[in-house]
Each structure stands twice: as structure tokens, then as C-alpha cells.
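Thread: "does anyone have the structure for this chain?"

Original post by V.I.:
We have the sequence but no experimental structure in hand. Need at least a predicted one for the grant figures.
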Amino acid sequence: MDKTQQGFVTLSKASGVGTIEFFHPSHNSLPGNLLKQLADTITRAGEDPEIKVVVLRSSGERTFCAGASFDELISIENYQEGKTFFLGFANVINAMRKCPKFIIGRIQGKAVGGGVGLASAVDYCMATKYASVKLSELAVGIGPFVVGPAVERKVGTSAFSQMAINATEWQTAAWAKEKGLFNEVFDEVDQMDAYIEHLSGKLIASNPAAMKGLKEVFWEGCEDWDVLLDKRAGMSGELVLSTFTREAIQSFKAKA
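Reply from O.Q.:
Generated one for you, C-alpha cells below.
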């Protein structure tokens, strides 16, 4: 099967908690079809009256999300295809921004590129000590243009610049917590899951109108992101066609 057609996104509900889980066999990287499913599922969870709080997680143990699918990136043949692919990440970020419910992120392992963007766009982020982070886009000739606004909003310009420029270096989960990307860091997954259950239990008993109002406050100043991220997707869509980027992606794929 074509790797870009593998993987899944699911939504399960229990006691007011909607759990969105995604998976792809290539380290939870995200091709365009999964990005669309993820954005649509987040929107659906936000509209479901039975769901009071959302948990975003991925399958597997040591990788939360490896970012964009290299298999799909290398197959892009023109600007519109490139922009459409990167709009997938933009649409997921905007779906999280617009979701009227708090989204808790469960980051069990490494997050790269778009994976850091997902972690940045949740409202409360839990991680394990194994959850190192890296914005690797510059190393393959692109740049974290689409996820940049979400990352910068969470960690500030200095830390975002550090990750964007030093694109081959991992930053530790402790560093990510210090910079504000992660709210809590745990030694083991079961400890993290227990705390997610604890916090979710508190939130489902909270006033939904108050939580919705708080979420709007948290995201004030981001109302132009539909336009901003569309522009950023265009920047990435153009760069992904360059000879530099194509050769860099092929080199990365050969090492994988």
C-alpha cells in the first residue's frame, strides 16, 4: 500500500472526554489525508455536546509525531500541490485554535517539525521526559513557516528562533517545559496518563461557557491566522519544489 494512504485518526468518547488519536507507521508522520482527517475530527469534537474536554494523542511509545510525510513531500510536483499539503498543517492548527473546548496534549515521545506545531497548538500540554523536540525544517530547505506562529506564541521569539536556526539539534523535554511548550513533564507514561485523567475529570465538571470564554482569551490576537497560515503554506509550497529541498529530503529518506 502507498505509505501516504496508511494510518488512521480516531475519536472516542467516555464520560465527557473526547480522545483523538492518530497513527502512521512512519513514526507518526502525517500525510495530507491524515492531516485532513485530524482537522475534521478536531472540529467534530468541538461541536459534539457530549464532549466537554478533548485529549489529543498518538499511538506508539517513543515518537509523538515526526512531522510532515517525506513520502508525500518528495512526490509534490507543482506549487499548488505544495501549498495544499502545507495547508493541511495550517488547517489542523486553526481547527485547534477555533475549537471551543480545551485540548490537552499527550506527548509521549519525540516531536519533530509539524509535531512541535501540534504540541504548541493544544491548550495544556503534558509530556514525558522522552519528549525531545526539534524544528528540522531548515535542514531540509524549507523552514517552520506554517507551525511558526503556534510555536512562537507558546515559547516566545527567542526560543522559536533557537529551534528554527539550530534545526538539527534536539531540545530536551525539560528545556521545552522551561520555555513554556510543555506544562508538565513526567518520568513515565503511566504517570502522565494518570494526571491527564485527573485534570480531565476536573475540567468536565467545570462550566463549559467559562472554559469557552477562557479559550477565546488565550487565543486573542490570532484571529488573522486563516490568512496568515495560508500565506505561510504558500511559502513552504514554493520552497519544497527547489532542487536543494528535493535533494535534502531524499538524503533524509535514505538515512531513515
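V.I.: this helps a lot. The domain at 3-188+208-255 is CATH 3.90.226.10 (2-enoyl-CoA Hydratase; Chain A, domain 1).
O.Q.: and The chain has one domain: 3-188+208-255.
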